Automatic annotation (TrEMBL):
<dbReference type="InterPro" id="IPR003445">
    <property type="entry name" value="Cat_transpt"/>
</dbReference>
<keyword id="KW-1133">Transmembrane helix</keyword>
<feature type="transmembrane region" description="Helical">
    <location>
        <begin position="295"/>
        <end position="328"/>
    </location>
</feature>
<keyword id="KW-0813">Transport</keyword>
<feature type="transmembrane region" description="Helical">
    <location>
        <begin position="193"/>
        <end position="218"/>
    </location>
</feature>
<dbReference type="InterPro" id="IPR004772">
    <property type="entry name" value="TrkH"/>
</dbReference>
<feature type="transmembrane region" description="Helical">
    <location>
        <begin position="348"/>
        <end position="369"/>
    </location>
</feature>
<keyword id="KW-1003">Cell membrane</keyword>
<feature type="transmembrane region" description="Helical">
    <location>
        <begin position="75"/>
        <end position="100"/>
    </location>
</feature>
<protein>
    <submittedName>
        <fullName>K+ transporter Trk</fullName>
    </submittedName>
</protein>
<feature type="transmembrane region" description="Helical">
    <location>
        <begin position="15"/>
        <end position="33"/>
    </location>
</feature>
<keyword id="KW-0812">Transmembrane</keyword>
<dbReference type="GO" id="GO:0005886">
    <property type="term" value="C:plasma membrane"/>
</dbReference>
<feature type="transmembrane region" description="Helical">
    <location>
        <begin position="403"/>
        <end position="427"/>
    </location>
</feature>
<keyword id="KW-0630">Potassium</keyword>
<feature type="transmembrane region" description="Helical">
    <location>
        <begin position="230"/>
        <end position="249"/>
    </location>
</feature>
<keyword id="KW-0406">Ion transport</keyword>
Length: 446
């Protein structure tokens, strides 16, 4: 009874952290079983823990090849971890409660509010229902299209299995694939159907369920919220700018775009612009890309997806606020105005806090890894940012990580999935409101 009372005293951020940690631990135990891999021998716990963390945090970094090392049982475990991790364990718990017709308690609603990054509990259960419906429909459509396409390359049963796995993986922005030998989707660089379906799944999972709901209800409401407008406009801008930059930098690179025709160049440029937004799939050899392109992808990975989505990073809205703050300061304005709405000061402070905490985390982990791993700094920074943004892209370092490196990347993926601010609240919950203010002081800046 005492343990139960103590559990109920935990703050919502603490419950989220413990919940995800429990799922990762259970997944790691299952992946250590001999039945989970093709060798018939138990997998080292650190490798199982790394894989479970990567799957639950929908990242996609792997130390063992998913398609060749893991058995069908192990692959199904990974797929389930991706689904639970992408939608959130509280969303799955709510699903079972709805199926069993149990009442959603006030405390559950508070945890759901924290998990979905909402400002209010109003309509939270209704949003969860939409999340489940959207996920099932979009993943199902993606799986069907994949199965039809791959039925021309493999037996129908295997094509259906591949379709389901990749539909779940790509929509949840996990980046796990079953094609083996760490090749990802490089064999489909010219395939428009595979490229377009994967990009659609990635963007759908990355814009967030709140935006999806808003877009679906547009015909009825005839308007979009400020949040939706910012997410859609910034997502489109980042994809377009990213495609143009990659196209320019890699156009003459014989190891990437240089060997493709014009259609392949354009398709691959857009694909590699979309996938750093926390997806983890690739159609080009990332290690062969120029350093300018690799560093630009680091920036895209750091920005990441949007709030309330299956992706990581500091989020598109946070980046928009930072850009808005710079523009407002240059223009000499006191307020950040977006689509004729003035942003509250607490939103600006939160954006700055998230960005600096994320920056300190990425830089700190990269500095430590530069002493424990035998690789150049850009490769290490790429790996760390990929882990924080729950992207899953790598320049080949993941398979060669030391024990310390694997632990650090696991912690980075965990922090990236939950968000540095949620972890900070979990470690030290917010105190009560201050009853006084200090006198204003002035310092010289610039």
């Amino acid at each position: 009874m005492a343990a139960k009372i103590k559990w109920f005293r935990l703050a919502p951020p603490q419950i989220l952290v413990l919940g995800f940690a429990c799922i990762i631990f259970i997944g790691a135990i299952l992946l250590t079983l001999p039945i989970s891999n093709t060798t018939g021998k138990p997998l080292r716990f650190i490798d199982a823990l790394f894989t479970a963390t990567s799957a639950t945090c929908v990242t996609g970094l792997v130390v063992k090849d998913t398609g060749t090392f893991f058995s069908t049982f192990g692959q199904v475990v990974i797929m389930l971890l991706i689904q639970v991790g992408g939608l959130g364990f509280m969303t799955m718990a709510t699903l079972f409660s709805l199926v069993l017709k149990r009442k959603i308690s006030l405390r559950d609603r508070l945890i759901l509010q924290e998990a979905m990054n909402q400002n209010t509990m109003e309509g939270i259960v209704r949003l969860i229902r939409k999340v489940l419906i959207f996920s099932l429909v979009i993943e199902g459509c993606g799986a069907l299209l994949f199965a039809i396409r791959w039925s021309f390359d493999m037996p129908v049963g295997r094509a259906i299995y591949f379709g389901i796995f990749h539909g779940v993986s790509m929509f949840n922005n996990a980046g796990f694939d079953l094609f083996g030998h760490f090749n990802s989707l490089t064999g489909y660089v010219y395939d428009p159907l595979v490229n377009i379906v994967v990009m659609f799944l990635i963007v759908s999972g990355g814009i967030g369920f709140i935006v999806m709901s808003d877009v679906v209800d547009f015909r009825k409401n005839r308007k979009l919220s400020l949040h939706t407008k910012i997410v859609l406009s910034m997502t489109g801008a980042l994809i377009l700018v990213g495609a143009v930059v990659i196209f320019i930098f890699e156009f003459s690179n014989p190891k990437t775009l240089g060997s493709l025709n014009w259609g392949g160049k354009i398709l691959a440029s857009f694909f590699q612009s979309v996938t750093p937004r926390t997806a983890g799939a690739n159609t080009l050899d990332l290690a062969s890309m120029r350093q300018a392109s690799q560093f630009f992808m680091v920036i895209l990975m750091f920005i990441g997806a949007s709030p309330g989505s299956t992706g990581g990073g500091i989020k598109t809205t946070t980046f928009t606020i930072l850009v808005g703050a710079v523009i407002a300061m240059i223009r000499g304005r006191d307020d950040i105005v977006l689509y004729r709405y003035r942003l509250a000061q607490d939103r600006i402070f939160k954006a700055l806090t998230i960005t600096f905490m994320a920056l300190f985390l990425v830089v700190g982990v990269s500095m430590v890894l530069s002493t424990t791993e035998d690789s150049n700094f850009l490769t290490i920074l790429y790996e760390t940012t990929s882990a924080f943004g729950t992207v899953g892209l790598t320049l080949g370092l993941t398979q060669h990580l030391t024990l310390v490196g694997k632990i650090l990347i696991c912690l980075t993926m965990f922090a990236g999935r939950l968000g540095p601010l949620t972890l900070a609240y979990a470690l030290g919950p917010k105190k009560g409101k201050e009853l006084y203010r200090h006198p204003e002081g002035k310092i010289i800046i610039g």
